[in-house]
Specification:
Layout lengths: L1 H17 L11 H5 L10 H5 L10 H4 L4 E5 L1 H9 L18 H9 L5 E4 L9 E5 L2 E5 L12 E10 L2 E4 L2 E17 L1 H8 L9 E26 L3 E28 L10 E12 L6 E14 L2 E10 L2 E14 L3 E15 L3 E10 L2 E9 L4 E11 L2 E9 L5 E11 L2 E10 L8 E10 L1
Helix pairs in contact: 1-6
Length: 446
C-alpha cells in the first residue's frame, strides 16, 4: 500500500513540476540562457517557427550571432562524478532501501547537461504517514503545494530533420516531424488525499484520468522566403511553406487508472485493488501511411535598428490515419482486453504554434523580446546584450507556462572567430518551491 501511494505521489509531483517544460526546449547556447532564453536574429526558435527568417540576413556583425554553438557539458561531468556507478547506484534503484524518488524526479526535470551551482532544496518533510489498522493519512508537507489542482501535461511538436535545397528563395525538402502529448488530471478523491492530507476511506476509488499520444513521420515540403520590399537595411520579408504530412505511425490512449480500497485499511488479503480502463488506438509502422496537408506562414520587418517578426506553424495540419486499430482494456482482479474495431479511419491534429519577436539594436547594445506558444500556453522572454570590446554582458527575464518568473544573466569573451560564453539561469523545475540556479557554458564559432 505504501509503495503504491508513494508511486502515485511521485508521478503526480513529476507531472505537476514538469508542466512548463512543454513549451520550453533544451537550450544549448549559453548566450541565450544569459539573456533569459531570448532568441535574436536567425538563432534559436525564430527560423524554426518563422519561415520568413530564411531570407533575413543573420547580421552576425551587428548582434554577435555565431555560426555554430557547441555546448560544454559540465553538468554531465558533475553528475558522473557524483554517481560514478549509475547502474548500481542505490539512489536510482527502486528495489534498494536507498532509493531516492526525489533525486530521480529532479534529475528527470533538470537533465544534467548544465552545472547546478545552486540546487533547489528538497522539502525536509516530504512525506509523513499516519497509519492504523483502519486508518491511513499521507502528509506531503511543503511538496503538497506542487500537486496540481487542474489538468497538467507535457506536449511538444518538433522537426528533428529538415534537409533540402533551394534556389532564389524557393526550397524543396523533406521534413521529419514528431508530435507528443501527455496529460493527467487527478480525481477529486485522490486530489484531496495527496494535496489536502485527507484520510483514506474504505471502499473508495482513487483515480487519475490519463491521456497520451505520440505520432510522427515525414513531410515533403515546398517553401518560399524572400524580401518583398526594400533592401537589406530597410526591408519587408515574407515566407511560407506547404507540407504534405505522411505519418509513419501513431498511438493514442485515453484511460482512467487508480486503486480501490478494501473494507478495512491494512487488513485482509487484498486491502487495495488496482483498477483501470483504457481505450487505445494505433496505426503501427508498416500500415497504410497517414496523410494530411498543412502550412507555415511568416513575416519579418527590418528597419535600421528595429526588427519585428511573426510566424505561425502547422496551420490546418490534420492527419488522417486510414488503417487504425482500436482496443479496450480493463484491469481489476485480472486483465481483460478486447478489440473494438480494426482497419478504421481516425484523425489527429498537430497543434498550431506561433512566435512573435521584437529586437532593437543601437551601437553595441541589443534589446529584444519574444513570445512563443507551442500549443500548451505561452512563454515570454525579454533580454539584452551589451558588448564592450572583447566582452559581452547579458541579462534577461522570462515568464514560463505556469506564469512563474525566471531570470538569466551571463557574459562572454570573444577572440577573433572563437568565443566562450557563460550563462546563468534560475528555474523552478524541481520538487521545491524555491529556485535553483543553473550555469551553462558553450563555445561559439563565428
Amino acid at each position: 500500500m505504501r509503495i503504491l501511494v508513494v508511486g502515485f505521489g511521485l508521478v503526480v509531483l513529476v507531472g505537476g513540476a514538469a508542466a512548463p517544460a512543454a513549451g520550453q526546449w533544451l537550450v544549448t547556447d549559453a548566450r541565450r540562457i544569459g539573456m533569459g532564453g531570448l532568441s535574436l536574429g536567425r538563432s534559436g526558435s525564430l527560423e524554426r517557427y518563422n519561415p520568413a527568417y530564411r531570407a533575413v540576413d543573420a547580421r552576425a556583425d551587428r548582434r554577435g550571432q555565431p555560426k555554430v554553438t557547441i555546448p560544454i557539458p559540465l553538468g554531465i561531468i558533475q553528475f558522473l562524478h557524483d554517481h560514478p556507478h549509475l547502474s548500481s547506484d542505490p539512489a536510482f534503484d527502486p528495489k534498494s532501501t536507498g532509493f531516492n524518488p526525489i533525486l530521480v524526479a529532479n534529475t528527470i526535470l533538470n537533465l544534467p547537461l548544465y552545472l547546478e551551482v545552486k540546487k533547489a532544496p528538497t522539502p525536509t518533510n516530504d512525506v509523513a504517514f499516519t497509519i492504523g489498522r483502519n486508518f491511513l493519512m499521507v502528509n506531503l508537507g511543503q511538496a503538497a503545494t506542487l500537486v496540481p489542482e487542474d489538468q497538467f501535461g507535457i506536449s511538444g511538436s518538433s522537426r528533428p530533420l529538415d534537409p533540402g535545397f533551394g534556389f532564389k528563395g524557393f526550397r524543396v525538402g523533406v521534413m521529419g516531424w514528431l508530435h507528443d502529448d501527455v496529460a493527467f488530471e487527478l480525481g477529486d478523491r485522490l486530489l484531496g488525499f495527496l494535496r489536502d492530507s485527507q484520510p483514506a476511506d474504505t471502499n473508495t476509488r482513487y483515480n487519475v484520468l490519463v491521456h497520451g499520444l505520440v505520432e510522427g513521420g515525414f513531410a515533403p515540403t515546398v517553401s518560399y522566403a524572400g524580401r518583398i520590399a526594400g533592401d537589406s537595411t530597410h526591408g519587408f520579408y515574407a515566407g511560407g511553406a506547404v507540407h504534405y504530412y505522411l505519418g509513419l505511425g501513431y498511438g493514442r490512449t485515453d484511460g482512467d487508472a487508480g486503486f480501490i480500497t478494501g473494507d478495512t485499511i491494512f487488513a485482509g488479503s487484498n486491502p487495495v485493488t488496482p483498477d483501470g480502463r483504457t481505450l487505445t488506438q494505433y496505426s503501427k509502422p508498416g500500415n497504410t501511411l497517414g496523410h494530411g496537408i498543412g502550412g507555415d506562414i511568416g513575416v519579418a520587418w527590418v528597419s535600421g535598428p528595429v526588427e519585428i517578426g511573426i510566424g505561425v506553424n502547422d496551420i490546418g495540419a490534420t492527419i488522417t490515419w486510414p488503417d487504425t486499430r482500436l482496443d479496450s482494456a480493463f484491469y481489476h482482479d485480472s486483465t481483460y482486453s478486447r478489440p473494438v474495431a480494426n482497419h478504421v479511419e481516425t484523425k489527429t491534429k498537430l497543434p498550431v504554434s506561433y512566435v512573435a519577436n521584437l529586437a532593437y539594436t543601437v551601437g553595441n547594445t541589443t534589446l529584444g523580446a519574444d513570445v512563443l506558444n507551442t500549443g500548451r500556453g505561452s512563454v515570454v522572454h525579454v533580454g539584452g546584450e551589451q558588448r564592450v570590446g572583447l566582452f559581452a554582458l547579458r541579462g534577461g527575464v522570462a515568464r514560463d507556462q505556469r506564469k512563474r518568473i525566471e531570470f538569466g544573466f551571463g557574459g562572454g569573451l570573444r577572440f577573433g572567430g572563437l568565443g566562450l560564453d557563460v550563462g546563468f539561469w534560475t528555474h523552478t523545475n524541481s520538487l521545491s518551491n524555491e529556485r535553483g540556479i543553473t550555469m551553462a557554458t558553450s563555445l561559439s564559432i563565428y
